[in-house]
Amino acid sequence: MHFETTAIHAGQEPEETTGAVVVPIFQTSTYAQTAVAEHKGYEYSRTQNPTRGAMETCLAALEGARFGLGFASGMAATSTAMTLLSQGDHVVSSNDVYGGTYRVFEKVFRDFGIDFTYVTTADLAEVEAAMRPETKLVWVETPTNPLLQITDIAGVSAIAKKHGAWLGVDNTFASPYFQRPIEHGADFVVHSTTKFLGGHSDVVGGAAVTDDPEIHEKLAFAQNAMGAIPGPFDSWIVLRGLKTLGVRMDRHESNARRIADWLEKHPRVRKVLYPGLESFEHHEIAKKQMSGFGALISFYVEGGVDEAVAICGKTKVFTLAESLGGVESLIEHPGKMTHASIPPEVREPRGLGDDLVRLSVGIEHIDDLLADLDEAMKG
Q1: Exactly one of 52, 136, 180, 195 is catalytic; which is it?
Q2: How many CB atoms lie within 10 A of CB 323?
Q3: At what angle do helices 366-376 and 304-314 cross, to 10 degrees?
Q4: Which of 89, 98, 187, 211 is catalytic?
Q5: Are residues 56 and 204 in the same domain?
Q6: Regarding beta strands 135-141 and 90-94, do their DSSP bridges make them parallel or antiparallel, or are they unpaired?
Q7: Do 169 and 30 sit in the same domain of this protein?
Q8: Fewest CB within 10 angstroms: 2, 23, 238, 297, which?
Q9: If you write DSSP's letter for every residue of 186-247 in order, what string do you get?
Q10: What does the alpha-carbon distance between residue 24 and residue 18 come to, in Å, rounded to a whole number?
């Protein structure tokens, strides 16, 4: 089936008792058993829940994989993925990652004896040079947050496999509509379902998807043991969002392309970062592994931090807020908001300076979005 059909039907057969065409919200913590240790596939909702199961099935299908797991947040999915590792293991990670990912790596898992090396994963030579005998995982965001760097997933997969390491890809920015990392050699994929998958800024959640039975078994055990699972209502909200993912992503991207072109010509913009621009450093790699370029745009302003902060505070249609991927357009200052947990001395050499503004382009009318930015960026 095509993507849009899968999003509406995978894991979502009509409910057997009533014929309801929408998966019910099974708001229950436990399930009656027919006899001691005999049940109908469900015993306790931390372990399994029918609504969550439908969401997990649909997510796996959209990523072209067999196994999906739901979590309470994107960070819960990321943290659970780290349970694949042991004390003394080493991770090679994209250096431009979400601030919360950097924080949990450095402030939590490093204390557990896991070591991290941060490189520009878009540069395969840097990835190769960072690999060690104890490297067990390569962690990639592509596109990255917020510089939108694109990593050649197949290229990094070959390096990881040569060294006996797993490749995990955070696919939040692209969504499976525009990119399916497992088809390019990723061992597992994580998402913040809070973003494009839910799509309406009304739920917090996460997911991990894999086609590898061993990885699935390990992650499913950790999911149940640690309990960082989404409730049935949150699962239902994400499942509802998935139904319109395709049509939303098309509109997100068409708006973002127009805005990126407009920003590139603006006299107060020093540089625009958007994978769909031919001027973008990794445009050709993006074309190779993505079917579209997404809704995120970052740009550097000529006036430095004061100008960047001022622009963020002047928009009316673009809401000043963290997060991304909802139907509404958002604007933020990464250095003072989403990536403030990364020290300036760490982020600035990577290009994440205080003159950077990030947009999550929504699905409003493009003329209103352009007029809003035009007004906010007037001198």
Answers
A1: 195
A2: 16
A3: 140
A4: 98
A5: yes
A6: parallel
A7: yes
A8: 2
A9: -SEEEEETTTTTT-SS----EEEEES-HHHHHHHHHHHHHH-----HHHHHHHHHHHHTHHH
A10: 10
Gyration radius of the chain's alpha carbons: 21
Q: List the CATH number of the domain containing 43.
A: 3.40.640.10
| In a shared domain, residues 235 and 136 | yes
Burial state string for 260-291 with b = 16 or more CB within 10 A and e = fewer than 16: bebbbeeeebebbbbbbbeebebbebbeebbe
Q: Which of 46, 66, 240, 268 is catalytic?
A: 46
**Whether 166 and 40 share a structural domain:** yes
Question: Based on the domain organization, do 50 and 169 belong to the same domain?
Answer: yes
Tens of pLDDT along 306-316?
999 999 999 99
Which pLDDT value is given to residue 172?
98
Last residue of a domain, one of 177, 212, 243: 243
Which residues, 6+ apart, have CB-to-CB distance to 270 below 8 Å?
Answer: 299, 300, 301, 302, 355
Note the pLDDT of residue 40.
Answer: 86
Q: Is 195 a catalytic residue?
A: yes
* Total number of domains in the chain: 2
130 and 22 assigned to the same domain: yes
Q: Using the 3D structure, point to which of 220, 243, 266 is the last residue of a domain.
A: 243
Domain with 74 in it: 3-243
Pick the closest to residue 354 from 340, 335, 331, 337 (CA basis).
335
Convert the pLDDT of each residue in 67-117 to its tens digit: 999 999 999 999 999 999 999 999 999 999 998 999 999 999 999 999 999
In this prediction the pTM is 0.95
Same-domain pairing of 287 and 181: no
Q: Are 148 and 274 in contact (CB under 8 A)?
A: yes
How do beta strands 206-210 and 166-170 pair? unpaired
Count helices and strands in the chain by DSSP H and E runs: 14, 12
Q: What is the DSSP string of 307-345?
A: HHHHHHHH-SSSEE-S---SSS-EEE-TTTTTTTTS-HH
Is 170 a known active-site residue?
yes
Question: Which residue of the set 170, 211, 234, 372 is catalytic?
Answer: 170
Q: 334: domain CATH number?
A: 3.90.1150.10
| DSSP state at residue 353 | -
Q: How confident is the model at residue 39 (pLDDT cuts 50, 70, 90)?
A: confident
